[in-house]
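Hi W.,

Here's what went into the run:
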Amino acid sequence: MAGWFLKGVALGVKTTKYPRRAEQAPGVSPGLPRPTRFLDAAQAQEVASRCPTGALSASGSEVAVDARKCIHCYRCLRSDGAAMSWSDDYDWADVPESATGQGRPLGFEPRFRRSVNILVVDAGDCGACLNEIAQLAAPQYNLHRLGFFLTPTPRHADLLMVVGPVTDAMRYPLLAAYEAMPEPKRVMAVGTCALGGSVFGPSFIAGGGVAELLPVDVEVPGNPPPPLAILHALRVVSGQIRGARR
Amino acid sequence: MTPRELIATEIRSRWSEFPLTVEWPAPDRLRIDVGEGSTAVDIAEWLVDERGFVFAGMAVREHRRYWRIHYLFYDHGIPGLWIQVSSDTSREQPLIPSLASRVHAADWHEREAEDHFGILFEGHPRLGDFVLHDEEWPEGISPMRKSFDASERILSRGTRPDWSPRRILQEPGAFAMTVGPIYGGLSEPVHFLLETTGENVVRAFPRLFFKYRAIEKRAEGLDVNGALLLAERFSATTAFASSFAFCQAVETMADIEAPPRARTLRVLLAELERLRRHVGSIRGICGSTALAVAESRAGYLEEELLRLSGEIGGHRYLFGLNVPGGLAADLADGACRLLAERLAEIEHALASLRRMLGTTSSFLDRLEEVGVVTSEEAGYHGLVGPVARASNIVCDLRAAHPYSGYERFAVAVPHEEEGDGYARLRVLFDEALESARIIRSAARDLPSGAVRTPIERAPRNAWAFGAVEAPGGASIHWLWLDEEGRVERYRIVPPSFVNWHGFHLAAEGFAFQDFPIILSTFALSVAESDR
Amino acid sequence: MSLADGLLVLFFAFLGVAIIVTLVSSGRSGPLLMALFGAASGALLVAAGAVILAGGRPVDLSLWSIPGLGALHLALDPLSALFLIVAGLVFLPVSIFSAGYARRYEGRYSLKAMAVNSYALFASIALLLSTDSLLLFLLAWEGVALFSYLLVNFEHDHAPTRSAAYLFLVMAEAGTAAVVVAFMLLANGAHSFDFAEIRAAASSAGPGIRWAVFLLSFFGFGVKAGIVPVNAWLPRAHPAAPANVSAIMSGTVLNMGLYGILRTNGDLLPLTQVAPGVIVLLVGALSAIVGILYATTANDLKTMLAHSSIENIGIVVAGFGGAFVFAASGRGDLAAILVTAALYHMTNHSLYKSLLFMGAGSVDEAVGTRDLDRLGGLARWMPLTSIFFLAGALSIAAIPPFNGFVSEWLTFQGILRSAELASRAVQVAFVLAGACLALTAALAITCFVKAFAMGFLGVARSPEVRRARERPLITVFSLGIPAALCLLLGILPTYVIPALDRAARPVVVETSSAVELVPPFFAPPPYSGELPEGFVRDFHDIGAQVGQGLLPGRGLVVLHRGGPDRHVVFAMAPSYMILLLVLLGGGTYVVVRVASRSRSLRRARQWDGGLHRLPHELTYTATGFSNPVRVIFRGIFRPRTIEDLHETMSEHFRGPIRRQYEEVHVVTRLFVKPLTRSARWLSDNLARMHSGKINTYVGYVLITLAVFVVLAWFT
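Here's what came out:
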């Protein structure tokens, strides 16, 4: 047992400086396409048409990006034709308009500032989002240091993190978990599937995202969103920072 | 006459009174079409029982007036042989001869087909409540039929809230411990029923398909590029292996081959994925035994590997790289060399972790002689991958059926005899280290040239299957394309689906508290099996 | 005639009237009369005993005198008075309970028989306790056995009931036979049947006689008390008997065995050697552990309670044993503590066990089953019964502030004092017994967590549970009486201990150190020389005088002073503890209430992982709960597989797994079976001697003659 301790110490501190400093290590994010201006409308049209999920939309010679739909297929990047410009950032989380709208004052719960207990429900994800959340516990991210804790039971949970498009069989368990959570509670939709179904839904068996079922308070785009993007979202939901773009 | 041809001859002579069609689409692929009747089941049983073939999977297709059923087998021989046996049953027939009662590995395939197509297998002792759960779905819905409209939710369908589990343990005071579907901190949804009278699990029964997304149905009607997205993303932790198999199938149909550089790079990336997945599984095992330091160390390595993947391939889970004909983007030689360098460190750390775990008695106590699967059990369940190899079933498609450049790397197949949790852990470590070795050797001697062979004539009205050794074991992707080159049927037999079928073997007879550990040593993916 | 005399005579007269009225009354009013007469006679018993324990003159009443047989003489000393009070405290609520409970038998069995038998049992018990003659004692003893048998055999249409009752009768008679021999030895020594003369002659008894009387009386009376290895009848009789009968049996009849043991070995012929005491101690500890092991794994509520009676009686007997050892070693002070503790525990056991049996009866009546695997969630349907059952379960599991805690704690403290004994071997015996009792205490918690959790919490495990309704108020009320007493005895030990001490006086004559367990912290200074000034001041500093002037008595602290060098050996103050608990709990409640005034209570479904519904077959069963105990103590339970069938539907497809086990009680396996086997062997061999040939018989005669001739030659 002492050996483990020594080995642990010998490894040194591997934890990211984020959020105090941006993490620059390569490979921490798959990146997202950036809105790009092309030579002409035809080229923009061609680039946008390569997107299989409709995340790109051309207007004139400019191509706009809907990050909520991007699945990082790189078809707009890796091709013989023109390519979108690409960003490697990860602070993507945002508050959906529905959550800021009438009747649901965002007013981030002051009680969430110090510690948030998170229940993760896999509602049909491909395994990537879940694995990225699992990475948050790895030494590189160590989410506990920021006051976030994973809990296995909704009874202790403040935040419901949902991954996956919400499959038919998971609708009821997901609702049951949400209802079993005490107030105040928040819902975070993690990943493109949870935002809109991605390549899986909507269909007879897979839904078109969490918002069909539960009021979503924070959205994290990405397929999967890298751990830092989820960490960013956690900071948004706990009221440490405001959302990304809006 | 080669041994391969001997098998064909023997089948022909044994079933000489039946009109068999025997073809050789490739030197290692034998295709037998038996027409109507139960000959296919007889041949299948003979192949498995007498010739030691492994039942690899079953695909059902709706074909005009018939149900076409394809059985696929492969053997452990080097070089190996794939045999596909196909038969037809008229759709007017209410029952289809069951293979499961004779070849147990076909059990879940038939249960799945029953739920998918609403067809019944004569003599299968346990059907129903599989893909579509009884408490949510009435009988009579068959989503895989062509006539079924998969785009709309079926809202009013009469759920059955009075559902009760089917139990087999009849003993005073027996009950079924329920776990899930939402359980644990970061678990994929499965509903386990552990029948017991307390203390020991007498029967473990996983109810899967909470994550059923009907990938096979959704692929139908898509073009190859659209289906590729599904193939790659239905199970992200083995995305590269799945897209690899899918691309293989398309390449076989289009009769092209990826350029040498792409083939070597594919080996490199596939091994990188395997390494990352195995390290993740090792992390899971350490976590299940509450060995926090070891879990952190493995977690550290996993994240490093994810970052490496992101650095060289753009995406941390290697999405968007595989395309029919090769790779979507080239990897810089420098990046590959960097990878090889970094891997040396990871290999070192992994070996040290292994040494440490091997001397931590509190850890070994939880794994040794726990969750035992005998070689015989693994055999008749047709288990694959590290799980099977830990039970002394020495089979690895990379060695037995080398594909896409694996010929160039003599792949060692680590295996153990005990079949317990520790044996599975050792196999995971050995394979991870072997993968690191293959990556370094591939990076050292990377052919130059293009990474993508253009497809000249898009395949239409064709079919093929691709098979790769995914991290979890053999992964088989069948693809049928219609006249317009759109997917007519896509059938995936992922390794987790096969291994979940045998998981109960390991869990039964052991105490409750061993259950999560046994589960972690199986390194199963639900996304992959539920698809 | 003193007050106690009057009350006692009134009791007997009242019961006589009750029997006559019951016999002539119409059947319909039977239950009501039973409640009235039973409760009133119970109250009379309590009153008679209380008068004596409170310091009244012991009963000494000659009723009449028959030449040749001696006088019919009633005598009631404090020891008998305590047993009398306990009996009364059991009769009172149980009689009320019977009124409601007995209705289930209306039309099927004779309620008159039940009433008359139970009055006769009351009378026998009272007579047994109030006699000072061996003959009358035996008569009453037989009465107790007979009327108990009739009551156990109440549902006589039922074959298992008959065989269980018969087993009880046979074992009771075997015990009586042993007791008769012991009494003959006593009477022979004193040339009298009178207690006083036997006492006087005790000092002249030789060691052989002492051993014989001890062994015969201990195991003879032990049958009725239910100690190992003569306990076989208990777990079979209780499930067979009606619940009210079980309550009475457990609450009073078992005590009669204890009374016999204590009266004979503590009073009539006090043990002067250490060895018998060690035997009593070890037998008690063994009974406790065996009893609780089987109780923990039993799923029938009443079988479980029956096994648990063996456990509790074991604890009491262990206390007696320790006291005998201390008394024989010249440590009368410690003996007094242990006797007090044991009598305390016996009182407690009578109260909570009758409560629990009535609870089990209520459940049985409301649901129709006592099988814990089929109960569950009753708290929702029978809230009051559940609360009272919980009180009983907490008491029996020795959880403060209930009474079981006080008596077990005192017993443990007493046994720990064995360190002051000289003999190493005896110390080892005490350590073994202490370890057994500790394990017993832990298992008792497991056992009653299981009983309450599986019976009253969780989900209903059978549809019958959902149809259960709360019992009528009168029944619930009858459960409330012992529940309240359990709580009172738990929080006011300082008032109980002096009374018990007085009761123990006939047994531990020379010292009254148990009364010192309650130091006079309430006494105004100067402290009457009993306690050093500084000592009292120290205790007053921490509040031991709180209640002074408000409450009667010596104080609220239980404390044992070891000697000049060791002021405090052990101490506790449950009264203050409960006060503090109430204050803290109430305070917390108020604070929470004030702090979160806007708090809204939300009732949510249990979290089951997201299932549509949680069928009861997916929740823990009682068997599952206690299975770890069964697995750990496999060597004791020795389950025998009688069926282990794994069906397959076709190759590798598993069908039903059918398994069944059978257990033979460890005492039956190790003691009763070998005994019966050797008895049978002996009789088989003796039977062979009856060959029927005249020559053989002549041979026997000749051999016998020769033997006698040779014997005569040498003597």
